[in-house]
């Protein structure tokens, strides 16, 4: 195959048009804090935190001056923005400094097949919903609370067993090639987290898991090798999707408040916009979805979008053992023969709220769960001092899945912020993207062991 044809088949050719980050209200910041590289901007928010954003306006660091200098912590809202991984070099999660992310000029040389949103599949127990509050709790009051403390989260625990860093694609087509790699991994059940066309520890650990699962090593620097893996795993990395009236009808909510009392008043913890919903459905970073569809009207039915062709979930496997690897911040699930079935990047504990150690079991699985807040049992959030029921939805505190563990208050669950998985600490539970948590929930049953390893 001629090189030009190969590039057309592999690379999603798109103009890179990124608006500069607005600097209105930005203040100078203390030089004590490190420089996160070109294109980033830092400012001091109303609480005195140093907030750093990248060129897309996404928060990549929130640093608290008093904590960095060893003073007392300033406890507050448990849903504050979480900080950048301490062991990630500047730019490490958002591409390599110096990479040229310009795109080519021609998309694939074959028609892009349209893809409809997949219909929800059946759950192992035949149910479609659940509630965290129905799980028995030692207090005897019938409620079950995930471990989410009221204090701000502690420092992310550095990975002590990181996956080998891969040498990924570089050059003008690098971002599209990295996205293709992420699709290959996602299709195989070894999730790279959100697909965003950027290298980082989530991609590193997924590549290592792919080798463990298949016995093959992907030459991540070779476009031809990526093309061959795409052909093996399901074809082009990108497909098309037409926005429907159903997509626009939602339901959606105007915004998600931070205060639990306000959350409890909502009809559901739904998506807030079409792009958020579609990005999660196709396992994408929301900003990347917008980037590869410049000028698209996401609020008009009939709009044709380019989306990631991630394939279908892993099904049919009998998971008997889950490993929650703290040293790699990854969840891996195995069958009775010891074969790796799925692997996901995860956020597992922090220095202030560590995850448990040893072996526990899956106790119960709740799909689309309610969330019961009880300040007497776990924590006090804001000024809320009464029991509250937060309705289900993808933007709920535990996302769309709660896999209760036999150790009370701990579980494996989803998240309202998928782009932060594997890059920030959790409150002690094991946090996955909603789509990864859903795939896992359909593969496990009560009694499956969960081993927390250091």
TrEMBL record:
Bias kind Polar residues: ranges: 142-159
L,D-TPase catalytic domain residues: 320-453
Matching CDD domains: YkuD_like (cd16913)
Presence of the UniProt keyword Nucleus in the record: no
Compositionally biased region (Basic and acidic residues): 67-87
GO molecular function list: peptidoglycan L,D-transpeptidase activity; transferase activity
Coiled coil: none
Keywords, in A-Z order: Cell shape, Cell wall biogenesis/degradation, Lipoprotein, Peptidoglycan synthesis, Signal, Transferase
Signal peptide: 1-24
Region (Disordered): 67-93, 109-171
GO biological process, one term: cell wall organization
Pathway(s) the chain acts in: Cell wall biogenesis; peptidoglycan biosynthesis
A GO cellular component annotation in the UniProt record: extracellular region
Annotated Pfam families: YkuD
Cited PROSITE patterns: LD_TPASE
Membership in a protein family: Belongs to the YkuD family.
Protein name: Lipoprotein-anchoring transpeptidase ErfK/SrfK
Organism of origin: Aureimonas jatrophae
